[in-house]
Amino acid sequence: MIQFGGRQILLSPSGPVVLGFLIFSIFARLTAGSLLRGIAYHSYQEGDQLEVIATKLTSKINQLPYDYYSVPFCDSQDVTARSRRVNLGQLLSGERAKTTDFQFRMNKSQQCTLMCTVLLQNKDAAVLQQRIAQMYSVRLSLDHMPVVVKGTTKGGNVAYQLGYPLGFVEDDSHYINNYLRLKVLVHREHDSDRDYFQVVGFEVEPKSLSFYVETGEVTKEQCTAPRAAPLKVEAGTEVPFVYDVVFEESEMNWATRWDHLLKPSDDVVRLQWSVTMNSMLVGVFLTALVGFILLRTVLRDFVRYNQLDQEAPEEDSSGWKVLHADVFRTPRYAAPLCVFVGTGTQVFTMAAITQVFAVAGLVSQGNRAALLTAMLFLWVATSLVSGYTSARLYTSLKGTKSRKWVTTATAFLFSGITFIAFFVLNLVLSMFRSQAAVPLRGLVGLLLLWFCLAIPLVFVGAYLGYKRRPHEFPVRTNQIPRAVPKSPIPFARLILPLVAGIFPFCSFLCELTFILNTMWQGQIYFLFGFLLAVFALLTVTCGEMSVVFTYITLSNEDHRWWWPAFLASGSSGLYVFLYSIYYLKTHPGFHGVTLISVLIYMVYMNIISVAFALMTGAIGFHASFFFVKRIYGAIRIE
């Protein structure tokens, strides 16, 4: 039996165990199944059938991913037979698993294999032309290795592009890449008089060629013809889909098969080092400057106050010491502040653990679905942190009347707004028949995670927080509040926190650009070590700016420091949102972007900006709270 909100709740001894086991089983089925298959070690013998999986069609200028079979590719199977199970992270990222009509066997090269011939109807030609004009690319995978186009950068370094372009536009005509030269990199192992092979790479060279199909075959001379005309997409055109398969042995091991895709070019590494070192130098300089000034000022205040205590206590009538009886007074709107701090602490915990996992290699850096699944799991697990933090802080602020509201708002406010925005956006995506629309089973899975795991964990954390001893304050609070002097700067309480938020934003700006490129331009983010270093710098900067702003507020004899401490660093979320608008307008990848893509972009960037504001605000609040307790605990109060 537990007591919560003045009511006693009786729990069966076996009830929570059974419920927890059922919920965990559902979560494992929704999230872990495909991940485990994705990291399983696969070996093939020569001649074994290989299955090529299609995941989606993606574009940089149109954020709506589509199904592979939304365009007239070869399709000899029914919907049920070609579909494969995917996890919740893949559903949320718009990935599906559909089998294709590619037929080839391990270590058996093929040349000029005709997969099928498709006669384009008016509707098919229109869809193809639209997809080609919007620069869609085709995502395929073999043994969980994505197909890539191998190229070179301007500096001569090897670069890989995920997927291959569906076609190209030339002189207002649309051409489809119907001829694929596939290269499968394999690693050979010898065991018990048999050779085994592992797939360690999957490359493609797409071309658009007009073939003359006779008796259902394509001659080798046609595939190697240097002057073959490209195939124009028009109604009534017969499109033959032809492919070659070449198997090439590689010294690369199966465990390191992602390394060549995740290895950044020298230009990217130099740029990251330059950006990170500049940010670190600025951060170290700012930390040293702020620390020196603040430490020197606070020590001087301690000396002055101690001298006044010994010589003339009655002259102690200015500075932050005079607020000792009001500094820990319960602020206005304490309940919302506790909710924001608790939610922000949860975001910070989730972000920090995710980055540590990525750096340690526990989460595949190239598998966005796996990373999304890990973040979703951590968000559910850290719900305990948000409930505990908000409840204990509210109890420390002498809050008793709104305990239920604080706990409920912590469980529903940010998560509820995010889910409503996601649900509405999902309806819009369904209207456009985009593969990004999460099916019903995915929505049910999200609701089960939210209502059956996340919300109960928030309430358990709140129960523990209310039972825990409140934070002890070093000074007592008077019943009558002290009058606050009028500030000489108009709207200072609004303007100064906005100015303070610039510094945390600037410390994270360059890394934010890399993250946006990964999210919206289809790039792979692989430098999590740099991200973790910049994240640590962001944490320090948020704490410093909030502490400085809190000290300035108290020095002006204003005891209302609670909300400014949160807003001084939390206002950086506003600059993230403003920068996202600037990024949308200036990045060349968004030129010609569709209206629905803008809608998707703005909805998700709003959510990210709010989460960033809550996280940085919580960091600043905790730093200021620790600072205020320390300085008032170090002075003598008569």
TrEMBL record:
The keyword Chloroplast does not apply. Keywords: Golgi apparatus, Membrane, Signal, Transmembrane, Transmembrane helix. It is a multi-pass membrane protein. Coiled coil: none annotated. The chain crosses the membrane at residues 17-36, 280-299, 333-363, 370-391, 411-432, 444-466, 494-517, 524-549, 561-581. It is found in: Golgi apparatus; Membrane. InterPro entries: EMP70, MFS_trans_sf. GO terms for biological process: protein localization to membrane. GO terms for cellular component: Golgi apparatus; membrane. Its main location: Golgi. Belongs to the nonaspanin (TM9SF) (TC 9.A.2) family. This is Transmembrane 9 superfamily member. It comes from Rhodosorus marinus.
